[in-house]
Amino acid sequence: MMYTDADERALYQRMGDALAASGRKIVFSLCQYGRVDVWKWGPAVGGNLWRTSGDISDRWESMERIGFSQDPLAPYAGPGHWNDPDMLEIGNGGMTDTEYRTHMSLWSMLAAPLIAGNDVRDMTPAIREILMNREVIAIDQDKLGKQATRTSKFGDTEIWTRPLAGGDVAVGLFNRGPDSSSITVNWRETGFSKNPAGARDLWQHSDLKLTGATYTAKVPSHGVVLLRVKK
User: Which of 57, 108, 112, 171 could lock 139 by a disulfide, CB 3.0 to 4.6 Å apart?
Assistant: First the structure.
């Protein structure tokens, strides 16, 4: 039997009611590819996460198109209900390690479910380090549950920010272009009321001493610098 878009909310409600009646704690994932604005009614039918796009593939163009289009959906994410831009393709061989770090960083900034889509029995050390970077995972799993938003865009470069529990802020400097680029964060323009005292580079695992009203990083093509900043 085939169903139309108009049927979907009622059908997911039936499943949500059945799961609730089971008396067990069950994560309910709504997989209908972002149709009929599922993020607006997903929580009401008992959903914990919902796909916001069609299927991802292991290509930069696919990951970039899906990941960087999630900004308008930030208001619908929060503890217990999450936007799901599809699984991680990290380690499947279609992108570079630099692009996979961007993939992991962006999904973590989006508070997205981190569902490994590779064969975890056979990973290179570099892929293992990307998928098991505890500092980046901590951004994704932050209990405040806020999804990042795009705070600035200039050409092929973008800055995204995400407030974290305890007052820290995650800041992602993304370079979507074909060449390396210097990206400058102006702290006041990024939502900081004063210049932060310091930050940590989550891929280099190193603390930064910030000075002044701006910070500049050299970001490779299709790459990212991901910071945890003390507000």
Answer: 108
CA distance linking residue 146 with residue 149, whole number of Å:
9
CA distance 108 to 100: 12
Q: What span, in angstroms and rounded, lies between the C-alpha atoms of 65 and 193?
A: 32
Angle at CA 154, nearest 5°, toward 148 and 160? 10
Work out whether strand 224-229 and strand 169-175 pair parallel, antiparallel, or are unpaired. Answer: antiparallel
Alpha-carbon gap, residue 197 to 195, rounded angstroms: 7
At 58, the amino acid letter reads D
In angstroms, the CA 151 to CA 158 distance is 8
pTM summary value: 0.95
Per-residue model confidence as pLDDT tens for the chain (231 residues): 577 888 889 999 999 999 999 999 999 999 989 999 999 999 999 999 999 999 999 999 999 999 999 999 999 999 999 999 999 999 999 999 999 999 999 999 999 999 999 999 999 999 999 999 999 999 999 999 999 999 999 999 999 999 999 999 999 999 999 999 999 999 998 889 899 989 999 999 999 999 899 999 999 999 999 999 998
Number of residues that make up the chain:
231
